[in-house]
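Customer escalation, tier 2.

The customer says the design service returned an amino acid string that "doesn't look like it belongs to this structure." They asked us to rerun it and document both sides in this ticket. The original structure tokens are below, unchanged.
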């Protein structure tokens, strides 16, 4: 089950919200994610502390929110629950956070699986961009992570390096550049490198298609354009690249 800490840390803008907004969002979390009938002052204080925040004065906030017109909280049998209209509004705003938390957690869990320090730096920046809601930057950093992983993996053994050079030779038909290390790949475009890796049999057709698609999205995100890069696109980019490239090519 999702923890309060996960919900708070991976919900965009949570720590910038007012105490009232945080209180209402935590109440929503308790009702929806923990499936409780309501909350009392003590339980909400625990939620705030679990999120790493000093709790506000519940003896003031809870009655005040229940007394508003229209009310934001409703008190029944000693517990507070969200008023119907507010509950529906928060459902629309927050229901997708389970996906967001899962994506962010997949990134946060990766460092233990990726020993390379350079890749860990890419991971850290990708996660920071995602948590800040900077989805264009997230898309760019996720591509950098996956492409660096691909090229590092493809040149990390003599066998794969030989296959890559053969793929380059066949793909470029005699115009090949001899590759000895990862750094030598700067002589080729990113798309060409992916094509040569596919020709060499280092990646399959599905992996190549994912990389081509995400490279196109990276280009749209990195340059001024009317293309919208939102959370959904960032989720898709991260999930595809992490699952099918970073964790598959070991």
């Amino acid at each position: 089950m999702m923890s309060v800490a996960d919900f708070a840390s991976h919900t965009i803008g949570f720590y910038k919200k007012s105490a009232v907004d945080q209180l209402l969002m935590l109440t929503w979390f308790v009702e929806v994610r923990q499936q409780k009938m309501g909350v009392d002052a003590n339980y909400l204080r625990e939620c705030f502390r679990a999120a790493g925040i000093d709790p506000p004065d519940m003896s003031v906030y809870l009655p005040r929110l229940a007394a508003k017109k229209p009310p934001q909280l409703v008190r029944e049998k000693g517990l507070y629950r969200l008023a119907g209209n507010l509950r529906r509004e928060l459902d629309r705003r927050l229901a997708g956070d389970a996906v967001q938390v899962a994506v962010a957690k997949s990134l946060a869990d990766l460092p233990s699986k990726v020993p390379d320090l350079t890749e860990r730096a890419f991971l850290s920046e990708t996660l920071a961009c995602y948590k800040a809601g900077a989805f264009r930057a997230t898309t760019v950093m996720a591509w950098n992570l996956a492409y660096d992983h691909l090229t590092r993996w493809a040149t990390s053994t003599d066998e794969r390096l030989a296959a890559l050079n053969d793929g380059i030779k066949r793909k470029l038909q005699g115009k090949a550049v001899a590759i000895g290390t990862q750094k030598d790949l700067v002589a080729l475009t990113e798309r060409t490198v992916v094509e040569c890796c596919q020709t060499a049999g280092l990646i399959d057709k599905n992996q190549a298609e994912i990389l081509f698609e995400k490279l196109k999205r990276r280009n749209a995100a990195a340059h001024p354009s009317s293309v919208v890069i939102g959370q959904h696109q960032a989720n898709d980019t991260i999930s595809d690249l992490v699952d099918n490239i970073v964790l598959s090519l070991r």
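Tier 2 assessment: The sequence is consistent with the input. The longest strand covers residues 73-76. The mean pLDDT is 89. Sent an explanation to the customer and offered a walkthrough call.
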